[in-house]
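We modelled each protein-ligand pair independently. The example shown here corresponds to the fe (ii) ion entry; the chain sequence is given first, followed by the ligand as SMILES.
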Amino acid sequence: MLRRSFLKSSLALPVSGMLLGRSSLGFSQALPSPLVAPKSRPSDFDFVFFTDCHLEPELAGVEGCVKCFTQINKEKADFCIAGGDQVFDVCEQDLTRAHLLFNLYQQTEKDHLSGKVYYTVGNHDVVGINQKSPVEPGAHEYGKKLYEDYFGKRYYSFDHKGWHFIVLDSIGIEYYKIFKAEFDEEQLAWLKSDLSSVGPSVPIIVVTHVPIATVLGTLSTHSHNGPGPIAANSYAVHELLAGHNLKAILQGHLHVWQKSEYQGVQYLISGAVSGAWWEGAMDGTPEGYTLCQIRGDQLHLSYVTYPWVARVQHPKS
Ligand SMILES: [Fe+2]
């Protein structure tokens, strides 16, 4: 999401072990707490989905990430998935700043987050896809080269304890220096091939930075700002997943907690590690991450905050 689309939010208050957030639209929601049930089967496991770190040297962003990573370590999860927008901001900055940000992120994670991390590409991780960027199309580093150099493949899959995870690249690039949320044809062909080797009973979790399903898109006043909250050709992904045992789609980009469920599939947008870009809660969702707990064939998603006080509050735009 673009920083300028931020709408000032109210504080989230702890209520009986849960968090109660109030959005700029006036709705309030209880954010679910983690399960207390311990793992009872060899196949049970936890993982953490954290997204939109937007790490930057300013606004005490490094300190915030360190606090968040330190708390994530206590979850003793099998692995983490980073949902994109690891830094702020590569898409409109020069290459010197881009390298600085990616190096700063990697060093912060190396020093303070233990265990395996799988990465997702976000719009703020891609060089040149903003009119303000000094990097022009045709430049060697334009696009996702730097992201791939630092974080690896832009789309891929992996398996863990019988579950199949698919990480997608939702960041399309259009001429001239414009970001369009969509899935490219090469990737969709790969997804079709990947799914062909996954049996119909295998539980699947899909990760994408820009959502492919969200209630917020209907309600949100964000939708008139910049790229819409849903990837343009989301239908293509839904079509390919049809007939599979899809359990959840984990999404970022919007910085707010929003979960819906349809035909047994959980569609989650997680709150952001950075809240509203290190300037407070985002539309009622405080800074945090999603704890994902798998017990048998069930997936429980809950939002976990960490102690952080923003140094400044973002002005209402
Ligand atoms: Fe973001």
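The chain has one domain: 45-303.
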